[in-house]
Amino acid sequence: MTSTNSKPRRQFKLTEASLGVWSVIVFIFLFAPIIVIFVYSFNSGRLLAAWDGFGFDGYQAMLEKTAVTSSVWVSLRAGVFSALLATLLGTLAGVAMARRPGKWVAWFSVLLLFVAITPEIVDAVSLLPWVVFLGQDLGLGIFNDGIVRLVVGQSLFSTAVVTYIVRSRLVGLNENLEEASADLYAPPARTFWKITLPLAMPAVLAGGLLSFTLGLDNTIVASFVQVSGTTPWPVYVLSSVRTGLRPDIASMSVVMLVLTLGALALVAVVLKKSGDSASQIARTMAG
Amino acid sequence: MKSENSQLKILASAPAAKIITQELNRRRFLSFAAAAGGAAFLAACSSPDAILKNGLEGSLSMYSWGDYDAPEVLTGFTKKLGPKLTVDSFGSNEEMISKLTEAKGTSGYDIVVPTGPFIPQMVQNKLLTKLDHSLIPNIKYMDPAFLGRDWDPNNDYSICKAWGTTGFVYDKTVIKRELLTWNDFFDAAENEASGSVSVLDDPGEITGMYYWAHGIDWNTTKKEDIDAAEDYLVNTFAKHVASFNSNPGSDAVVQSLQSLIQIWNGDARLGISESDDPDKWQWVLGSPATELWMDNWAIAEGAPHPKSAHAFINYVLEPANSLKELDYIGYHTGGTGIEEKAKEEGLEMLDLVFFTPEQLATMKTAEINEAQARTVDIWNKMKAAAGA
Amino acid sequence: MSGFRLPRPTLAIPAIGWLLIFFVAPVLMVLWFSFGYKPGIFASHANDKLSFDRYAEALNPTFFTTFWNTLWVGLAGTILCLLIAFPVAYWMSVKVPVRFRGLLLALVMVPYWTNFLVRTIGWQIILAPHGWLATALSSVGIIHGPLDILYTRSAVLLGVVYNYLPLMILPLFVAFDRVSNEMREASKDLGAGRIATLFRVTIPLAMPGIIVGTILVYIPLMGDYITAKVLGGAKGNMAGVLVASQFQTAQNWALGSAMAVLLIVVILLSAALAGLIIWLAILPFSRSRKLVIGMAK
User: Fold this and answer.
1) Which CATH class is domain C70-272?
2) Residue A175 forms contact with C (CB below 8 Å)
């Protein structure tokens, strides 16, 4: 198991290089189909997957179809809200699991496991009558809103994901700062805000990003809970398969990607302005 | 873990103090995010309805298959008659039915587009409202052959939106002989096309092939018929199947992913015409018998905009709009004389859209009956056998 | 442990409440259907007569044949994800300069902002018999003739790995990120080699993240029935399809619920079994790990 000490420097470089090469290969793998879609978004033919010629027809058609643009807008809104919600709920829960362990953690873990394991179609058929019941029988009008329903549906698995990730970051990580803070009679909220949250920040950001991403792809639950005017993008795409996907789907995907990247860049700039990257802060804390 | 970490603390605490000063900034970001979220939420609210001068409601909500109408027909309707159109999509009839059932008449959808066999259960469960034919005079442009089908003999609840049929395509560079019937399909699947067969991902379509090939009523509920179909499909046929795909025209045909493909006519037309090498594909209408499926215009029970809904159905039945719809989706809309108009317009491969009365006579419609559970069971067993 | 502290689960209460209202309550209602039956061809469920008959129906040979395929896909997919993601997450959190880490983390997610079906079409264009990859490989003479990868077991795994990779990379990144450089340096200064440091310091400390990544890939993957089949076709048949077929096609919610319960139980059992095996396998290592940590003091 131990390395030979004769040529440590060389071995070091070799490991370093192969790690980098492997990672670059994986990133190429991740982006390969996206590059294809980018190219095919300029397909002027009838079918997305059959190249015909270069043109901007897809982009033009995309703008003419209100069903396309509105579904993307619905998805982006539902994605952002469900990510914010799941990140909030999941971060608090993850911190509690790591910092206030007890018998309840076992029960809660089982609950999260069930959230992750339940087939999506079961969530879908159960959530639909439930939100109708809440909205119409109990008169909670908010549940008749399509975006609210989508957010609820998408937040379940995402909350579990954020909780898991935040907990795994904090569990076993030194608690001495928080204890010191408490010893100095800082109120718990202050300790949480100033010490625990920064410690958890990489996990919070990663979890939030993952929630948003999962929300964008949510198809089965979304198709059941949507109401008039809130068909989300994945439901539209899946449903359009019946008559053959056109290049405008690829064009819209590209536009959506660019818009989302732009929004993310904006957030990054705001974060940057406010100091070091969260990751660095937390590393300082932990390190 | 606990004990290890209390040891590790010593390495950790030194540079920590620095952090406190950086904390205020995190707050700034969160308040920004909250503000952005609030703004987007307000933008989501919509304005209430108004009645237009022509007596129609100011908006109309349609729940249909995705990308299933020519965009110019949709925009043309709003331009000519006024109601603002919202189109939502579903991926299956069952999904749409669940939605309408649970909403108990408050789904907010006006027009829905169910497939024929699902209409009786929707009527029985009071999910559809009766059409007022006086508001749909353009029904006169419909070919009587596509009116009054089994599921709605008097068109009380539905009018044909588009219909299609099932057949198969094969790659002539792989299958060198001529295939004409479902029996030929099965024979080729077991021989030269083995492992390169695609079938529709729909239980009725798969058992249907067996029944059509053997002269058995597609809607049979006889145990011996179903047992025979199960035995052949699961034990003999399944292992040759590579893919269960309901829309192979968009991928399997254009990318040559399989060589023998069960397919709907409009999808085949699309796939072959977009293929790099259209000549290598041969379309065969299923025989001796095959399917006729039909999607239908209908109005949901409790529709908030019934007048606009009738006006829309009437509008799409106008021959000019009917032709635009046919051109866009590639399926016959059921209008009279539309074949001649399509020819005048120069649309291609029309033999995959229009069929002769003799061919039409061999096409059967499905019904949902007691055999459904067995059919789904056979489908699952086939998938298990094909995946093993 | 001094100062005042909130009762233990206080911070988790919002999440618990949310999941109770929007997950437990509705899902329990559907599970209740599993004791009922399908009353007629046009109705999906009824509960006026209760029985375990649906469970007996669900426990059929098809379920188990399908489940074996599912288990194979689930295990192979999870292991591949772990093996592929591990070096990437390690590189991102240890070797890459801090200021680029956030960017890379976002880049892992970016491909997934394109719709699932659209990504799949991207892969089909690449992997088709005469697609991009086939053209590239035959131009350098590696293959002659069409590429035969779609609709094979390799394609099943490719689809699964592609779609579940971020659920592995992110938790691993977060876990490695917390194992500080100082700790690794200390381990090295104390004479432990690079590999020994990896196995005895980094991996044990990142273990919570590794476990989470594995759970987040394995558990949802086992219930998923779409991802495996988009590139793998019939070879990607998963048990979840049985549940979906009852809810969506047969409109038999009673049987669908019973199958869902059965599937959940079997997935949990398989996960528990796998966990037990892994725990037994690493038991010897955990002793030596403690020793190293003890020395680090």
Assistant:
1) mainly alpha
2) no
